[in-house]
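Researcher: Quick one. four chains, 454 residues in total.
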Amino acid sequence: MEPNIDALLPLRDVVFKTLRQAILTGELKPGERLMEIHLAEKLGVSRTPIREAIRQLELEGLVIMVPRRGAQVAHITEKSMSDVLEVRLALDELAVKLACERITDEEISLLRSACADFEDAVSSADIRSITSADVAFHDIIFKASRNSRLIQMVNNLAEQMYRYRFEYIKDDSGWQSLITEHRMITDAIAMRDSQLAERAIHVHIKNQENSILRTIRREEKDLTRKQ
Amino acid sequence: MEPNIDALLPLRDVVFKTLRQAILTGELKPGERLMEIHLAEKLGVSRTPIREAIRQLELEGLVIMVPRRGAQVAHITEKSMSDVLEVRLALDELAVKLACERITDEEISLLRSACADFEDAVSSADIRSITSADVAFHDIIFKASRNSRLIQMVNNLAEQMYRYRFEYIKDDSGWQSLITEHRMITDAIAMRDSQLAERAIHVHIKNQENSILRTIRREEKDLTRKQ
DNA sequence: ACAGTGCATACTGTATACAATATACAATTC
DNA sequence: GAATTGTATATTGTATACAGTATGCACTGT
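Model:
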């Protein structure tokens, strides 16, 4: 958890990113208390930017505040994650619907090459490039929705699933279906067929949902077995 | 903008609510700068709770931050509002769908009486009781969705439309159709017919959308005429 | 008269000091 | 011995002090 010193950004943003990273990588574990003085000393700043960063983490759902006890890292339960995924599915369906109405021809070309890039990444079998190609693909769709509020909300939700992104990508048995799904989504949007596109994204997200929830169930079982 | 002194809440929450109210009622006008010292003196607190409240307002989209210049009240444009309304429609459709699947029989009774309360409020022709009955009605549906994340996100979006709530309620020509729409939604949910319920809420929100956007267009025209 | 520089001012960003409260542990009482 | 209260300590909540930077204005030089 070394503070990424970037003189341009306000300290609160640096702290925010540092803490978020620490939570998503598991360095700060669920239930762990975030104590302002400790964090301030550890990161070499005062309490003020720490407090402001914690407020942001709260809004993203990564920590929960207990009055007069401060913040602690949020437990991720199957319920909380399925809540997030339900909303995310709805927002993704909205995004593709809007994209079908508003996407430009140039963006369709971009989408096609992003789709191809993803296939290349899969052939490379490198998890990192697969995930970034996946993000790039979906980003084009969101941008094409021309709804900045929607983009902002989806980004927030995505944070919460970040730690599970590797899980569903790791399992190489699903790669081929991921490619198929991306192709279906791309084709549907290129044809501006919103109904088809919504069905395609629905399948895509649902598959991720199943994979993520399976992982959590496994984790929770491990946890109870340990205790 | 008198601070509502409630000793139980942290000052940042009191300040947050005070400022939000001031923005929504128009006491703080779009573009107006929120200067920490001035607000601190006016509300009789220090800068710290003011800062924390401003961070929250930023997350709700009510103010925008300019680095090194602080916060200013966000301009509400037709585009930003239609972005919000697009997302809100999707989330409302999700909420009624989930409510159809998860609502209990007791909640259906509650919904029916809330629907009746709304009709009573309309006969009373009192704007305040109409709006609160409307909020109560929709709250039951959101609660029945059993998705706390969804509820949180819808609440955030709703803040932004608050200042226009009176506008679409004020116009008494629409009251009868509001009653009809609420009845259709209630009946569809009571039958747990999610497709019917989604169509009903779609119509309901779209009507609000038209009314709100009409109001904004009128405002923007007034504004340009003045300048 | 106009451009440019320097200074005063006002504000945000950050650090620290102070107040209030919750928690844990020990002492005291029943 | 158990329960309750007191007290120390740790931690958040709040206020204030200090530092750095942007903005506007006056003054100077051409």
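Confidence is low (pLDDT under 50) at residues 1-7 of chain B.
Researcher: Thanks, that's what I needed.
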